[in-house]
Amino acid sequence: MTPQQQLADLFVTLAGSSKEGALDVPETLEVLARGSPSLLGTTAASVTYDPGGSQGPRASGSDPDVTGLEREALSRREGPAHSPHRIDAHHAAPTPLDSPRTRQRWPWYAPAALALSHTHVVALPLRVPSRTLGALVLFSRQEDVPSRPAMALGQSLADFTAVMLQRAREAEDGRTLTGQLERALTSRVIIEQAKGVLATRRSLTMDDAFEVLRRHARSHRRPLHDVAREVVEGHADPGLTDPPV
Fold first, then answer.
1. pLDDT tens across 83-142, in order?
2. Residue 122 — φ and ψ, nearest 5°?
3. CATH 3.30.450.40 spans which residues of the chain?
4. Three-state DSSP class for 158?
5. How many CB atoms lie within 10 A of CB 112?
6. Helix or strand or coil: residue 226?
7. Mind spelling out the 3-state secondary structure of 212-223?
8. Confidence at 65, pLDDT banded by 50, 70, 90
9. What is the model's pTM?
């Protein structure tokens, strides 16, 4: 297979890494990590991704050893992928893992990567206009340090993947917001229905009916929506729905 075919296949596979219409994030990270070494001529690769919010950072490698290395590195806050927002993609260069400066900077990561027979590492940011989402990390030995054209191609892969991940996140946020709005609307409708029931049964205005409903929910320390639903369904506390004697 020619390099051009490899590249096309990797882009197609990345674009198709979805499940039931939604992007499969773990599969996307794995596809990029596993496909990068042969295409870019490196020993191994990993991908880190930090979606932000309540979700923690994720890592996937081209082999189990690299996956374990990067996941431990994330927990230790070490390695080139730890602060990808600081990476200058235009001036990125493979870092020798056996240099004193590197060992001082990454006291756990550098020896651990060397133990896996890697001598150099370079991180390419997964970037979108608003922020950096993670990094594509390329591992190599002295004889297969990636060239500038290879790193430029790797950056293109990283950028493409970042855009996919960002769009998937935005779509998920949109679905979450839509669900929240739908629930809020449903809740509001039920509360309005409950107000109507109380207004009719107790000869109240709609505003007074809402105040009675809210006061009852507060005094019983229950959600307003739950009390309103019971009123609408006909099994609420009679002290709330029956007119005062």
1. 654 555 555 788 999 999 999 999 999 999 999 999 999 999 998 887 888 999 999 998
2. -145, 140
3. 3-173
4. helix
5. 20
6. helix
7. HHHHHHHHCCCC
8. very high
9. 0.67
Residues 6+ apart with CB under 8 A from 115: none
Q: Is the dihedral of CA 232, 233, 237, 243 positive or negative?
A: positive
In this structure, CATH architecture of domain 3-173: 2-Layer Sandwich (3.30)
Name the token pair of 238: 């009679």
CATH 1.10.10.10 spans which residues of the chain?
A: 180-241
Measured CA distances, 227 to 94, 190, 201, 212 (Å): 63, 10, 16, 11
The domain over range 180-241 is classified in CATH as 1.10.10.10: yes
Of 150, 139, 80, nearest in space to 115 by CA: 139
Two structure tokens written together for 195: 């107000």
Return left, alpha or beta for 132; rule: phi > 0 is left, psi -120 to 50 is alpha, else beta. beta
For residues 61 and 116, the answer to whether their CB atoms sit within 8 Å is no
Between the alpha carbon of residue 71 and those of residues 46, 56, 77, 138, 183, the distances in Å are: 10, 11, 10, 15, 37
77: buried, middle or exposed (CB in 10 Å: 19+, 13-18, 0-12)? exposed
- Phi, psi at 159, each rounded to 5°: -65, -40
Query: Is 16 strand, coil or helix?
Result: coil
Span 229-236, mean pLDDT? 84
Helix axes 25-40, 3-15, angle to 10 degrees: 170
CA-CA-CA-CA torsion sign (233, 235, 239, 242): positive
Helix (H/G/I), strand (E/B), else coil: 27: helix
